[in-house]
Amino acid sequence: KKLFVFGGFHDNNASYRYFNDLYAFSLESYSWTKIETSVAPPARSGCCMVATGDGKILVWGGYSKTTVKKEVDRGTTHTDMYALVSNDKGDAKAPAGSTSYKWVSVKASGKKPAPRSGMAVAMAQNGKAYAFGGVMDTEEDEEDVRGLFSSELHVLDTAATTWRKVEVGAKARKPEKGNSKPNQDEPEPESAKVVSDDGIFTMTVGGASSGPSSTAKSGTNDLDLGGPSPRMNAAIVVCKGQLYVYGGLFETGSRQYTLSDLYSLDLHKLDAWKTLIANSLNSSEWLGSDSEGESSSDENDDDDDDDDD
């Protein structure tokens, strides 16, 4: 019984370093061991890492950056995949009774996620890994980097290493025969109540929001199925056929938001996301410093006032 840790980065504002080393933590002796391999994936952070049912560990995606010239860095979003497997031939230099490992490049097929880092991943008992969210650099020059955040959900069949995009509510978007009109008898929003019907969480939540995210768009079959907003570094887990997504980070301009909302998705039905704790960003007050743009605007206003004098 071991816990494996791979990669990561360290940044002290003066210098940074990305890692591709591998460590194992014994859950029996509570001790760390550095695992040496002849080759390893390129250094990175923010990658996905899952243990499969046949004893392999898959690593894919992630982000790293290198120095192009003085005070100028270039980021790389990785798209490769590797598997850590037991080395059947063994290592003559390894201590007796220990297991040696090697990295093997893996070519995944199917509809792969777009290049991104900070995806959250969780394994289900059927050998499928669900990956959610993440961020990809979409605009970069020597002074400006912007990211495109995702709310997509993909699933990887770890046995066949095949990707598939999960379409939530695909059946709900198709009108039933003889009933092409939208349902006009929608119930009124309910008041606060206790939610405990999935056997995992028991909590008191408010009624449905009256905003556009809680209702179907009238006159169309394009239903709003709710769900988590785009984000990176969320916490996700699969339990009893339900996928839970909690929190994460989102950036807009120079501001970074820490999320605390919670959602669930029935992986058998895939009909719609269920909001367990709603996103409260709209009612939050920003307590950080203003952006440079806002500061510049204020300075221009002051200059105009001086001109008037």
UniProtKB/TrEMBL annotation:
<feature type="region of interest" description="Disordered">
    <location>
        <begin position="284"/>
        <end position="309"/>
    </location>
</feature>
<feature type="compositionally biased region" description="Basic and acidic residues">
    <location>
        <begin position="167"/>
        <end position="179"/>
    </location>
</feature>
<feature type="compositionally biased region" description="Polar residues">
    <location>
        <begin position="210"/>
        <end position="221"/>
    </location>
</feature>
<protein>
    <recommendedName>
        <fullName>Kelch domain-containing protein 4</fullName>
    </recommendedName>
</protein>
<dbReference type="InterPro" id="IPR015915">
    <property type="entry name" value="Kelch-typ_b-propeller"/>
</dbReference>
<dbReference type="InterPro" id="IPR052588">
    <property type="entry name" value="Kelch_domain_protein"/>
</dbReference>
<feature type="region of interest" description="Disordered">
    <location>
        <begin position="167"/>
        <end position="229"/>
    </location>
</feature>
<feature type="compositionally biased region" description="Acidic residues">
    <location>
        <begin position="291"/>
        <end position="309"/>
    </location>
</feature>
<dbReference type="InterPro" id="IPR011043">
    <property type="entry name" value="Gal_Oxase/kelch_b-propeller"/>
</dbReference>
<dbReference type="Pfam" id="PF24681">
    <property type="entry name" value="Kelch_KLHDC2_KLHL20_DRC7"/>
</dbReference>
